[in-house]
C-alpha cells in the first residue's frame, strides 16, 4: 500500500509545476486528491492523468484569495470524500522588479493576496474540517527566498518569510490545541517549473537585469549544479504528508541542491 493510502489531500495551485507533481505523487501513493487552481485547462488535465494511472482526483476552480470560494470548496471536498487529512497550500506567484521603487502598490498587494491571504484562508477553512476527522498534516509552500533575502524579489521574499513563521505559529497552536494536526513549511531552491516564465523579466533574484532561465541560474549558484525538478519537491511533501513524519511539526524542509548551505 502507498505511503498516504486512504488519505484525502487538497492541493492549491495543483495545475502546474510543484503542485502538479505533488498531486501526481500523492495520488500514486494512495491519496485521493482535490486539485484546485484558477487554471481551468491544466487542472482537469492533471485529474485526467491521475485517473488514467488508476488514482482518484477531482478538480475545483479555486482562487485562493476568495474566502467565499474556500467555504464552498472545503464543503464540496468533505461532501465528496468525507474527510480531509492533508492540505498543501502551494499556490503562489512571484513579481520581480529591478529595484523596489519600481514596485506598484497594486502588484505588492496582489502578491501578498495570493501568497499570504491565500495561505491564511487555507488554514482558516481547512483546520475545522481536518479536526472533524481526527487531525492531519498542513504543508505550506515557502521558498529559499523565505529563509534569506532575494534582491529583485523582495516583496516575494517578504511573503515567503511570512509563510515560514505563520507555519511555525500555527504548528504551535495546533499542538497546544491537541488536535492531531502538524504544520510544516517547504523551502524549494531553484526548481524548473513554469513559474520562471511568469516572473516578468527585469530582475533575477540576484539583482541582475535579465530574463531568468532557471537552469542557467541554478548552474551558477547551486552546489549540485542544476535546477531541481518539481518531483524532488513533491518527495518532501510526501514525507510531511505521511505518518512517517508523525513527530515533525513546526519545522522547515529545505530542498535546494545545497544553495542554503554556504
Ligand atoms: P507554477 O506557476 O508552475 O504553479 C503555480 C500554480 O498556482 C499555477 O497553476 C497557478 O495557476 C496557480 N495560481 C496562481 N495564482 C493562484 C490563485 N490566486 N489561486 C489559485 N491558484 C493560483 O509555479 P511553481 O513553481 O510550481 O510554484 C508553486 C509554489 O512553489 C509557489 O508558492 C512558489 O512560490 C513556490 N516556489 C517555487 C520555486 C521554483 O523555483 N519554482 C521556488 C521556491 C518556491
Automatic annotation (TrEMBL):
Keywords associated with the record: Oxidoreductase
Family: Belongs to the short-chain dehydrogenases/reductases (SDR) family.
NCBIfam families recorded: PRK07231.1
Protein name (database record): NAD(P)-dependent dehydrogenase (Short-subunit alcohol dehydrogenase family)
Amino acid at each position: 500500500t502507498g505511503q498516504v493510502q486512504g488519505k484525502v489531500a487538497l492541493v492549491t495551485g495543483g495545475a502546474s509545476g510543484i503542485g502538479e507533481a505533488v498531486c501526481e505523487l500523492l495520488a500514486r501513493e494512495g491519496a485521493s486528491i482535490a486539485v484546485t487552481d484558477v487554471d481551468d485547462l491544466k487542472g482537469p488535465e492533471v485529474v485526467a492523468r491521475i485517473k488514467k494511472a488508476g488514482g482518484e482526483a477531482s478538480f475545483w476552480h479555486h482562487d485562493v484569495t476568495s474566502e467565499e470560494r474556500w467555504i464552498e470548496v472545503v464543503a464540496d471536498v468533505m461532501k465528496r470524500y468525507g474527510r480531509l487529512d492533508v492540505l498543501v497550500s502551494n499556490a503562489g506567484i512571484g513579481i520581480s522588479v529591478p529595484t523596489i521603487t519600481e514596485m506598484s502598490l497594486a502588484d505588492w498587494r496582489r502578491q501578498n493576496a495570493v501568497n499570504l491571504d491565500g495561505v491564511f484562508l487555507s488554514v482558516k477553512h481547512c483546520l475545522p474540517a481536518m479536526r472533524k476527522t481526527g487531525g492531519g498534516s498542513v504543508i505550506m509552500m515557502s521558498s529559499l527566498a523565505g529563509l534569506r533575502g532575494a534582491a529583485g524579489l523582495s516583496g516575494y521574499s517578504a511573503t515567503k518569510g511570512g509563510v515560514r513563521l505563520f507555519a511555525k505559529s500555527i504548528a504551535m497552536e495546533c499542538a497546544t490545541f491537541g488536535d492531531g494536526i502538524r504544520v510544516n513549511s517547504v523551502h524549494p531552491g531553484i526548481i524548473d517549473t513554469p513559474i520562471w516564465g511568469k516572473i516578468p523579466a527585469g530582475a533575477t533574484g540576484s539583482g541582475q537585469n535579465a530574463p531568468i532561465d532557471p537552469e542557467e541560474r541554478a548552474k551558477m549558484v547551486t552546489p549540485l549544479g542544476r535546477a531541481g525538478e518539481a518531483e524532488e519537491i513533491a518527495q518532501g511533501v510526501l514525507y510531511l504528508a505521511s505518518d512517517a513524519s508523525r513527530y515533525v511539526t513546526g519545522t522547515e524542509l529545505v530542498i535546494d541542491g545545497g544553495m542554503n548551505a554556504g
